[in-house]
Design goal:
The protein is mostly helical. It is built from nine helices and four strands, in the order ααααααβααβαββ. Among the domains are: about 55 residues, no CATH class; about 80 residues, no CATH class. Helices cover about 40% and strands about 10% of the residues.
Length: about 250
């Protein structure tokens, strides 16, 4: 047995003993099963929950969007860019409950708006009757948020979902394959900004993500850049009506 193996074995024995000592009588069985199968066992229930969602990222994405749908769009909220409580770019997903004007306070998730319970869980398995006021987010929602803002970090899971086939060409995905948004985010901002908030999150989640080979991605980006350029050029012109009829003038 090597030094590394000896260290890992000893470390896991200690971590498992610490985990089992801290476990409550009720604990999600899939999370515990996952934790005990890890190369390095998480030593606390909270870390076990975080590890579970981090390694089941597509499941975390679905759950976070379902919780957001349960909360619904806050009354009076609209997707805006810049200013206090608003993202500076359309590349970040809208998050109304991170806005101080719509925040629900401690005990509610700042991402989906639903109550947070022990260990960052989304359901009250322990029948405590009240959320954890020391928590401000679900473990699943944190994993989903990281996925939404950096989907390329989960290219392995997305490749597996596609059975390692490029969605554009149908060929096998290469090592250089890249993650792409089916509907570009600039078009989401331009065409769908008034959609209900839970529906908007789907454009950052798995339903709007694909893995394509780099050559196909370059072609798609070229076409998108050309479309954006045409849109900018057309926005310089406007139609005016005068005595002679309609005419097109160029904005200065």
């Amino acid at each position: 047995m090597t030094t590394t193996s000896s260290w890992r074995t000893l470390r896991n024995v200690q971590a498992r003993a610490r985990l089992e000592k801290a476990l409550p009588a009720i604990f999600p069985a899939p999370v515990l099963q996952h934790a005990l199968a890890r190369p390095l066992i998480p030593p606390t229930p909270r870390l076990a929950v975080e590890s579970y969602w981090r390694n089941h990222i597509l499941r975390a994405d679905r759950l976070a969007r379902a919780l957001a749908a349960r909360s619904g769009t806050p009354e009076g909220w609209t997707w805006q860019l810049g200013g206090a409580g608003h993202a500076r770019s359309f590349r970040l997903p809208p998050a109304p409950f991170r806005d101080p004007a719509f925040a629900r306070g401690r005990g509610a998730c700042c991402i989906c708006g639903q109550p947070v319970y022990r260990f960052g869980w989304h359901r009250d398995l322990w029948a405590g009757g009240a959320p954890n006021t020391k928590a401000g987010w679900h473990a699943a929602c944190v994993a989903a948020w990281k996925f939404w803002i950096a989907p390329h970090a989960q290219v392995r899971a997305l490749k597996l979902r596609q059975r390692h086939r490029c969605t554009t060409t149908g060929k096998r995905l290469l090592k250089t394959a890249e993650v792409d948004h089916l509907l570009p985010l600039y078009r989401v901002w331009r065409e769908h900004r008034d959609a209900p908030w839970p529906e908007l999150l789907g454009y950052w989640g798995a339903p709007n993500l694909q893995v394509v080979n780099r050559a196909a991605h370059v072609d798609k980006c070229r076409d998108e850049a050309a479309e954006r350029s045409r849109t900018v050029q057309l926005s310089r012109f406007r139609v005016v009506e005068d005595e002679s009829g309609f005419s097109v003038v160029e904005e200065e």
